[in-house]
Structure formats: C-alpha cells, structure tokens
Design a protein that fits this description.
The complex is a heterotrimer of chains A (74), B (149) and C (670).
Chain A: E1 2-3, E2 12-18, H1 22-30, E3 38-43, E4 50-54, E5 57-61, H2 63-67, E6 69-73
Antiparallel strand pairs in A: 1-6, 2-3, 2-6, 3-4, 4-5
Chain B: H1 7-32, H2 47-68, H3 74-105, H4 122-137, E1 144-148
Helix pairs in contact in B: 1-2, 1-3, 1-4, 2-3, 3-4
Chain C: E1 4-10, H1 16-24, E2 41-47, E3 50-56, H2 68-80, E4 84-90, H3 94-107, E5 111-116, H4 118-123, E6 126-128, H5 130-137, E7 141-143, H6 152-162, H7 176-186, H8 190-195, H9 198-206, H10 210-217, H11 222-240, H12 243-262, E8 263-269, H13 272-280, H14 286-326, H15 330-348, H16 351-367, H17 369-383, H18 391-397, H19 401-406, H20 414-423, H21 433-443, H22 448-473, E9 483-485, H23 494-528, E10 529-530, E11 533-534, H24 543-546, H25 550-562, H26 569-578, H27 583-592, H28 600-607, H29 612-624, H30 629-639, H31 641-669
Parallel strand pairs in C: 1-3, 1-4, 4-5, 5-7
Antiparallel strand pairs in C: 2-3, 6-8, 10-11
Classes of the chains: A alpha+beta (74), B mainly alpha (149), C alpha/beta (670).
Bound molecules: guanosine-5'-triphosphate and magnesium ion (MG).
C-alpha cells in the first residue's frame, strides 16, 4: 500500500483506504474515487496536483490530499 | 504508434515550427530591449509577444523531444502547439481588421498612410504556418485506439 | 407554491442551468467548470396547459450531510417534496452520475432522467441505449444535447407524462434483510411514514447519518428503532466492516451492472481534450501558457475594440456641439452638454473595450480552461496561502468583482473562502478600465499598453502579498484540500457566449443609465451651484467661478488628505464620487474639466494638474481604494458586515501607502 501521490504517470492502482475525515471520504466516494475503485494516474509531475481517472471521471487532486489516499499498485 | 500520424511527420513539424517560433521569439524579446532585428517582418516591441512565441516554441520542441523518445503523447504537443499558434495568428488578423476600420472607414488621424502590411506581424505569419502543423494531426482524436464491445 | 413544482438536480457541470434556461427562457450564468451555480434559482414555464415552477439547484455529487450544498439539495427534496425531480445525467460520465441517481431513488423521489451531453459521449466513443437504461433504472430517460436545444421539447413532454408516478426503489441485495428489519419498526410510527420514506430513513440510519438520527429522535418509537439499529449494525459490521463503505461499494456494484447493459459500445480514443490537457496542465508549460492566454485576452480587448470607441467618441462630441448650438436655455443646455454628455459620454466611450472584455471572458468560461487555470496555478496559490480554486473567482474579478465574490462559494473551507473574498477587489475589474485608459492615453502615450498592464500586475501582486499576510496573521493554517473535476474542453458554443456577453454588457449599460447617470448629474449640479446659489454654466469654464461651487467645497475639504500625492482638489472630488462606481471617477473628471469639443485625455494632459508620476499614483489609488458599493454589498452578503468594513478599511490604507510610495519613488527618480 502506497500513497496515490507516489504513483507514476500511467500507473494503475486500487484505492484501499482514505484517511483524513469522513467529509473527504464521502466526497471522493461520490465522485467515483472511493475505496475499492480502480484508478489511473493521468498526470503526476511530482509537484502540484495530480490528475486521476476512474472510469470516465477525471479529477484533479491536490498533492496533500493524494498523500492521504492509499492504493494497492497492480 | 498512436493515431496514424507518422513519427517522422511529428518530428519534422516539431523541429521546423519549434525553431521558427524560437527565432522570432528571440527577435521580439530583443526588440523590447531596443535592439531591432528585422527578419522579413518588423518586430512589435511588445515583450509579451516575445514571451508568447517562446512559449509556443517550447510546446513544439517538447513535441519534438517526445517524438524522438518514441513517446505516443508527442502528437498532443504538436496538436496543441498548432492550436495555440493559430489562435495567436487569428488575434493578429482581428487586430488588422480593427486597424483597417480605423484607416478606411473612420479615417483616424493616427492611421493616415496605414497599410495592411503594417500589421503583418511575426505571429500572424507563424500562425498561418501552424496551419500546416495542424492539418496532419487534426483528426487524431477521431480514430479509435481500441474498441471494446 | 403555485403550479407544479419540479426541480433540476445533477452533478456539477452536467448542464442543469443550460436546461433551466431553455425551459424558462431565463439567462442564468452557464460556464464550463464545476460549481457555476452557487445559489438555487427559480423560474416558471407553461406546457400542455399546466404551469410549472422550476428550481435549479447547485451541482452535487451525492446527498450526504457532510457538505452544505448536498445538505441543502437533500433537504429541498425531502422537505419540499417536488412533484418531479429531473435528474440530469452526463452521458459522457455515466457511472459517476448514476451514483446520485440511485440516492434520489432511495429517497423515493419521482425521478426523471435527462441524459445530457450525448454529443460529448459520442465524441469520447461511448454509445448509450436510452431505452435499455430506462428499463434497468425503471424511470423515463430522455436523451438530449441541451447546449444545442435538442431534446428540450421531449423533456417537457416527459415532464407532463411522468407527474404522479412513483418509481420502484433500488434493491441492495446484501443489505435487503437488514433494511427490511428497520423498516418494519419505523413503519409503526404513522407520522414518520407520512413525512419520510421509511426505506430512505433505514438506509441513512445504517450509514450513521446524523440528520436521520435527528429525525428518528423525534419519534415516540425512538428507543425501539435505536435498539434494533444497534443490533443490525453489529451484525453487518461483522459481515462487511465499515457499513458506509460497504453500502457505497454495493451502489457501485449495481451501477457497474446498469452501465454495462446500457453502454452498447465503447471505443478508446485519445480525445482532443486529453491532447490539450497533456500540454496545458504541463508542469513547466502550464503557467507560461496561462500568462499568454491572459495577455491575448487583454490584447483582444484593447486593440480590437479601439475603432468602436472612436465611433462613440465622435458621436458624443457631435451631440455636445449640436446641443450647444440648438438649446438656448443656459441651465438646460449646460446640464445636457457639460453634465450628461460630457460625463456620461466619457464613460460610454469605454463601452466597446468593456464589451470585448466580457466577450473574451465568456469565451474563456465556456472553453473549459478555467478549471485548468485552477490546476496549474494551485502550486503558486498555495505558496501565498490561497487555494487552487481561488483562481477562478480571481479571474472572474477582471470582469466584475460582484459575481466573482459570489463564486467563492465553491471553496469548501471557510478560511480559504474569506481570504479569497477579501483580496478579490484587488483584481482589477472592468469598471476601472476607463480610468486606466484615460490616464494612460493622457500621460503615457505610446506606452499605454505597458502602463495598463502594470496596473493589472500591481493588482495581482498586491492580492497575493495581502493574501500571504492575512494567512500569516488572521487566518492561520494551511489551505484545505484540493479536489476538482476537470470538464472536457468545449468548442466555442457561440449561442452561450454571445448570450453571456450580452447579459453582462446590458448590466453595464443599465448601470450607466442609472448610477453613473445620477452620479454625473449630481456632480454637475454641485459644480454650477455653490453656497451662494446658482453660478451659471460658466463655472465649468471659469476656474475662479468654479472655486465658489459646492464641489470645490468638498474638494478643498479633502485636499489636505491628497496633497502629499500632489493631486488637486478635482482629483479628490472624483475619488469621492468614484466610491459609488469606479466609472464615475472618469465621469466626474469629464464634467469638471468641461469637455466640450476636445477629448478628455488631451484636456487633462494639457491642464497641468497631473504629472506622469502623480497620474500613475492616481491610477494605482483608483485600483486599490474602497471597492464600489455593489462589491461592498456582495462582501457583506457573503461574509457579513464585519468583513465588509474590514475590506474597506484595509484597502483605503493600502491605496494610500501604495500611492505615496509611487510618488516617493517617482520623485526620487525624476
Ligand atoms: N457538449 C455539450 N455541452 C453541454 C451540453 N449541455 C451543456 N453543455 C455545456 O456544459 C457546461 C456546463 O453547463 P451548465 O448549464 O453551466 O452546467 P450546470 O450543471 O448548471 O453546472 P453547475 O452550476 O456548475 O453545477 C457549459 O459549458 C455548457 O455549454 C450538451 O448537451 N453537450
Ligand atoms: Mg448551473
């Protein structure tokens, strides 16, 4: 399990856990980025926010937030 | 390889336009510092023009670099560089149109003796050239990469 | 409420407001980024002989009680019980959108699905069979392309046809027996069942929803329900772990099945949005491109609008001349010529650049680039204690600070929001443009562009520095987390762009016809009268006479304040009235410098009351000092009186300091 922020561009993974409060968890889940979802890192330039895709949804996630999303790399 | 455009085409457009934008970007920047070098068209003396041209040059050259690395995303840089270049060229055309109204319809004092050639700027010419970069890549997004039922 | 109540709900940016406008004929703000609508909007329409009252809600991803928007949307549906809920679903993003649909069905609302943006879905290579979706969801599905007006008629027909239906609830196989057990007990309280859907209450209780607990807390069967809930929860936890997560998983499982059967074809393509994003969100290229885009927008605004300004200028000087020669009554002729035509005319000359600015920004808002601007600027903003999403209201501030301040509502965190509101007036709005153009034209001829650009940069620079300072001193802590959906880019949708440009330009014209008009008339009146009575129109041409007028009284009272900057009393008067609306600064100068035949920049330059340095300081002062009345009102509405007052005070102080510094440095260099 590693933070989402550590994944390279193009890497895929499965979200395992989201720390940082229920509000964030609920918001991410509703946007299609809850635990259990398969995600793909579209853009991670090791600075600034990441671009992450799950299905057809694509969101920008701040680096701080992305440290709190733990994923299992495939 | 993605989208049916050959890497060679991408490399050539990236290199040619990248260097053209680079040269004129430098010329425009120098003109702001008061050193007018005229390569076919007279520079505008606007630092932002220099900045914008150098930025577009960087986009094309990144495309060239990606294509050299056989990265499928190279086409995105050529595509976007061409769109930015053409947009800037379109802006130059609009400005020319506005000046034409001043000169021919309103006969404004400041525009006595104005001719459309006065408004042919580096970014207008380069915008037209960017069209050549755009045409081969414009339909890339319509071609499927993979088909799933 | 009169008529039948229907509400539009859906994820952010799916086209709710586009549909709302198409249904009601209104012109609410549409833009291509999530969170454009921040306040519910209402309207009406008639169809099939029935009157409908429509409510457009801000976009939400779910109906939890964790975020204010979601709570408002949910309360609206639970309490107001609309006759029909039109759930707008983005076809290019079916799975995520269905999450909300399921929750609406849970509440037991009468749902109708508008499957919007099918054009975009097809571009992405996704084909959906609406009949199949209809079958699996059990509610009507209307495919549409709202931005082109396709499907609106069908939607209206479907609204009419679907009144009074009650869709089947969605079943959650892993949870059914447990939900049933709770329903059985909740069902015993007749009052509760009448007010709420017991199934929804049961699910929410399982999720640990505070509101649902509150609702049940008012029931006489409270203890029984709670006892059963604890038992059920324990069993479920043993089976699934975290119940809330397990339920979300269950919903996504169902959604996957629905999507699988409804999506009949899917190709993978590199869309043109993806290609643009590869470059526009690039680590190094993103910010230079952003700066280049902003420059192009302003270049367009100034250079392309110039001939139209000349036409207006020419028209007003002609009007002034003919009024002067044709009307013999001194007071009336002076009111028209020196007051209204000179004052209002000097403001209206700037109608073209303002309209072009609105056009450029409406296009930018439609394009989808705003969300990317937030993305690339997040890093920079963070450094100054602002949030990535602060960028959107800041860019909107170049148009007008009032909607920009409203737009800060997309910021979830209160501190981030207050900070963004407080620095927003420093973003130079279109009303300040006339002042810059006037003074740049008068004192920096040939370098107008640089002078005006430097004003915008000064505003941005100050906003960042002040934000950094306030973050250190007042709003201690870090900006909150950044999550934002990036919508696909739009090819220009001219209908929407022209519509938005016109409705903003119209607002400016209305302001010119009311506030600015009143402002210049008052200034004229106070110039031709004085403590000694009516002075005659000559006051505006004769300095000795003018010094006996009321404006001179005001001006001289203010002068000590402004003399360190080297401005004369007329500048003081202009700033005084500019508080109403910043265009009035120019209008006032137009009246006071008695512009008849010659144009204002020449007159001011020739009058010798400003030097380039004091003129530059004056431009900076106008940029910074008190926000206009409407902006103060907006700050008050969003943050309260205390903060509105605070904004006025800090900006006055800042303006004074900056103007002094400019004069000081300018004096030292000269
Ligand atoms: N391609 C396409 N674009 C659409 C369609 N309908 C709306 N849009 C565009 O989608 C964007 C968002 O539209 P809005 O009506 O502002 O969306 P909203 O749901 O009200 O958004 P929020 O208020 O932010 O929640 C705009 O740029 C519209 O022009 C459609 O059918 N197809
Ligand atoms: Mg909306």
């Amino acid at each position: 399990m590693v933070p989402l922020a550590f994944l390279d561009e193009g890497a895929r993974g499965k979200i395992v856990r989201i720390t940082g409060g229920h509000g964030i968890l609920a918001r991410l889940t509703a946007m299609g980025f809850g635990p259990g979802r398969e995600v793909k890192v579209v853009r991670n330039q090791m600075a600034g926010p990441l671009l992450v895709a799950s299905g057809d949804a694509q969101v920008a996630i701040g680096r701080g937030m992305a440290m709190k999303i733990l994923v299992e790399v495939e | 390889m993605k989208g049916g455009v050959s890497p060679k085409t991408l490399k050539i457009t990236g290199a040619v336009l990248g260097f053209l934008y680079l040269i004129y970007g430098i010329v425009e920047t120098l003109s702001w510092f008061g050193r007018d070098v005229s390569l076919g068209v007279s520079p505008t003396g606007d630092i932002f023009v220099g900045f914008a041209l150098l930025t577009i040059s960087a986009v094309y050259l990144t495309g060239l670099k990606r294509a050299a690395e056989k990265d499928g995303r190279a086409v995105a840089y050529i595509y976007t560089g061409a769109i930015l270049g053409m947009a800037l060229g379109a802006l130059a055309l609009l400005v020319m149109g506005a000046d034409a109204i001043e000169a021919y319809l309103l006969h404004s004092e400041d525009f006595i003796g104005w001719s459309p050639l006065d408004d042919v700027t580096s970014y207008l010419v380069l915008g037209v050239l960017s069209l050549a970069a755009y045409l081969p890549v414009k339909d890339v997004s319509k071609e499927p990469l993979k088909v799933k039922a | 409420m009169e008529g039948t109540l229907i509400t539009l709900i859906g994820n952010p940016n799916v086209g709710k407001t586009t549909i709302f406008n198409a249904l009601t004929g209104l012109k609410q703000h549409v833009g291509n980024w999530p969170g454009v609508t921040v306040e519910k909007k209402e309207g009406e329409f008639e169809h099939g002989g029935k009157r409908f009252h429509v409510v457009d809600l801000p976009g939400v991803y779910a109906l939890t009680a964790y975020s204010i928007d979601e709570k408002i949307a949910r309360d609206f549906i639970v309490r107001e019980k609309p006759d029909l809920v039109v759930d707008i679903v983005d076809a290019s993003n079916l799975q995520r959108n269905l999450y909300l649909t399921l929750q609406l069905l849970e509440i037991g609302a009468n749902v109708l699905v508008a499957l919007n943006k099918i054009d975009l879905a097809e571009e992405k290579g996704i084909k959906i069979d609406p009949r199949e979706l209809e079958r699996v969801l059990g509610v009507s599905v209307i495919p549409m392309v709202a931005s082109r007006g396709e499907g609106i008629k069908e939607l209206k027909d479907a609204i009419l046809k679907n009144l009074g239906r009650k869709p089947e609830p969605v079943k959650y196989p892993n949870f059914e027996p447990y939900i049933e057990r709770l329903i059985r007990i909740i069902g015993l309280d007749g009052r509760l069942v009448k007010e709420y859907n017991p199934r929804w209450l049961a699910i929410k209780l399982l999720e640990g929803d505070e509101d649902a607990k509150g609702i049940v807390g008012g029931s006489p069967l409270r203890d029984e329900i709670m006892r059963e809930l604890i038992k059920v929860k324990k069993e479920l936890q043993k089976k699934h772990g975290d119940i809330e997560l397990a339920l979300a998983d269950e919903r996504y499982g169902i959604i996957s099945k629905i999507a699988e059967s409804a999506i009949v074809e899917r190709e993978e393509r590199m869309t043109f949005s993806e290609m643009l994003d590869e470059v526009l969100t690039h680590k190094y290229l993103g910010i230079p491109i952003f700066i280049g885009v902003m420059w192009a927008v302003f270049k367009f605004t100034f250079d392309v609008s110039a001939p139209f300004s000349d036409i207006i200028d020419w028209f007003f000087s002609w009007l002034g001349d003919s009024v002067g020669t044709h009307i013999s009554n001194d007071a009336l002729s002076s009111l028209l010529r020196d007051g209204i035509i000179a004052g209002l005319g000097s403001v209206l000359v700037f109608l073209p650049p303002i309209a072009f600015l609105f056009l450029a920004f409406s296009w930018l808002e439609d394009s989808g680039y705003m969300a990317r601007a937030a993305f690339v600027m997040d890093r920079v903003m963070h450094r100054f204690g602002l949030h990535g999403k602060s960028v959107i209201p800041m860019i909107m501030g170049f148009g007008c600070n009032v909607p920009a301040i409203m737009a800060t509502r997309t910021l979830e965190d209160e501190k981030d929001r207050l900070l963004t509101i407080l620095v927003n007036p420093l973003m130079s709005c279109s009303a300040r443009l006339p002042v810059y153009m006037l003074f740049a034209g008068a004192f920096f001829a040939g370098r107008e562009g640089t002078a005006i650009t430097s004003m915008y940069l000064l505003g941005i620079g100050l906003a960042l520095v002040i934000a950094w300072l306030f973050r250190k001193v007042i709003f201690k802590g870090e900006p909150s987390y950044f999550i934002m959906e990036l919508p696909p880019y739009n090819r220009p949708n001219w209908r929407a762009i022209i519509g938005a440009t016109w409705s903003r330009t119209e607002k400016f014209l209305r302001k010119a016809g009311t506030i600015i008009f009143a402002g210049v008339v008052v200034v004229w009146l106070l110039s031709v009268t004085g403590p000694g009575g009516y002075l005659g129109s000559e006051a505006l041409e004769n300095g000795a006479l003018l010094s006996k007028s009321w404006v001179a009284v005001i001006g001289h009272a203010l002068q000590p304040l402004f003399s360190p900057m080297g401005w004369d009393w007329r500048a003081g008067v202009a700033l005084f009235f500019g508080f109403i609306a910043k265009e009035v600064v120019v209008g006032t100068l137009g009246v006071l410098y008695g512009v008849g035949e010659e144009n204002l920049p020449h007159v001011i330059a020739a009058s010798g009351t400003f030097t380039p340095v004091t003129a530059y300081a004056f431009m900076a002062f106008v940029l910074i000092y008190v926000p206009c009345v409407a902006t103060i009102g907006a700050i008050k509405g969003e943050a309260g009186w205390k903060w509105a007052l605070f904004a006025v005070v800090y900006e006055l102080i800042l303006a004074y300091i900056v103007a002094l510094v400019i004069v000081g440095i300018g004096g030292a260099l000269a």
